[in-house]
Amino acid sequence: MRLNFLDLSLKGKVATCLQTGIALPGIALCLLLPLAGSASAAPCAEVTSRPDAWVNGRVNTLILAGRRAFDDEKNEPAYENVVTGIAARLRQCKLDRDLVFLSRYSRFVEYIGTLSLAVQPDHELGFAVPDKQYFAETAQYVQVPDFLREQRFLRAVSRLETLDQAKAYLRRLNASRKADELLIFFSYESRHLGTPDNDNSFLRLLVVVPGNIEQNIPDKWVQFGVTDPGVRTRTRNVSVVATLSSNDGSPNVYFKDFFRTFRRDGSITLRGRWELGYGDDQCVQCHKSGVLPIFPESGSVSEEETASLIAANQRFLTYGPPRFGKYLDPEKYGPGLGSASAADRAERFGAGFENTVASRSMICSSCHRASRLGALNWPMDQVLISSFIKGGQMPYGLKLQPAERAEVYERLIQEYFSVSDSHPGILKSWLLGSRSE
Fold first, then answer.
1. For a 10 Å CB count at each end of the chain, is N or C smaller?
2. Is residue 131 part of a domain?
3. Which residues on neighbouring strands pair with residue 217, listed in sequence order?
4. How many CB atoms are closer than 10 A to CB 120?
5. pLDDT, tens digit, for every residue of 266-322?
6. Domain check: are 176 and 316 in the same one?
7. What is the value of pTM for the model shown?
8. Within a domain: residue 44?
9. Residues with Cβ < 8 Å from 25, sequence gap 6 or more?
């Protein structure tokens, strides 16, 4: 019976096409147009007829894909496909302009819009403007100072064997600088992160170059990757994080990675990683607080330079809530790790959980929130978060056993990414509007 019905339906459409004067070769197209319209309308009908169910389903899919990408960067392409698909459906169904839908789900729509920036090929940094525009407009803040581009310094800072020569050069510079212009510098070994050009390179020289607010000159944290002894392939990366206080006292933070090119004649050039065609990373994924405090591998900072390490971290604490200019609003990413309420944790983890070591240690948001150091929210880097918690640096000042730190980490991640309908996690609750942050 269904075949007969389809046959009659097609005969009617053929007749209609012929009556309108369409030639026979065009009849097939005439027949397809209504079918195509129905196909495109069907997904939107599903959304508009059951918006709550559709949004809840997409939020679950998004968070689960995000969790998998957080656990293993190999899953990032699948996560990006989810973001792209949801953004496309919002545009297709015009939900991003539907005032009724937006009155209920504006947070979800805005969040998808913010996440989808980073999956565009010309927005690798994840900012509101294309990467080319960002680097052009912020060049005045993120350039490596000329005195750190001197060839003798670049050669010395390139390898651990000659690093003392680089430090001697910096000490000579300090001898002629005013007290408030003194460079803070020290070398160390990173606990967790390799350089953008070499995942296995952990040696660093950090140089903090003081700025001048009155002259609109930012503080610059210039970090050189240092090649390990005996390694032929040179570590190329030089990173700059610049902070410039705004009128309200909070710093605007700007980023840029540079790569050194080691030429056969012995000269070394320094150009932007992006300009050289190597792409870039989503800066705020790691730099929620703008500048990162330095927690070196134990014993990797010499006694003579320990005071410089302390001075750098103390300077970091003076910066206040990070801002990223017109390029990104960090509050669009919502609340972060550790921001669940005691009541929520009791429901999720059971009565009495508040009396455990893990509960008393899940205090990330006491510092990592919008009004202080910036919330630790998705997208975020798993290696960084895991290293800080399991490695003993966070929660700051608490002495925990390895097993306790592992539990704190697992609980924090669970309560943030949970998609349970009965006990939704921090991210899901915020996206669906049941949290006020």
1. N
2. no
3. 212
4. 13
5. 999 999 999 999 989 888 888 888 888 898 999 999 999 999 999 999 999 888 888
6. yes
7. 0.82
8. no
9. none
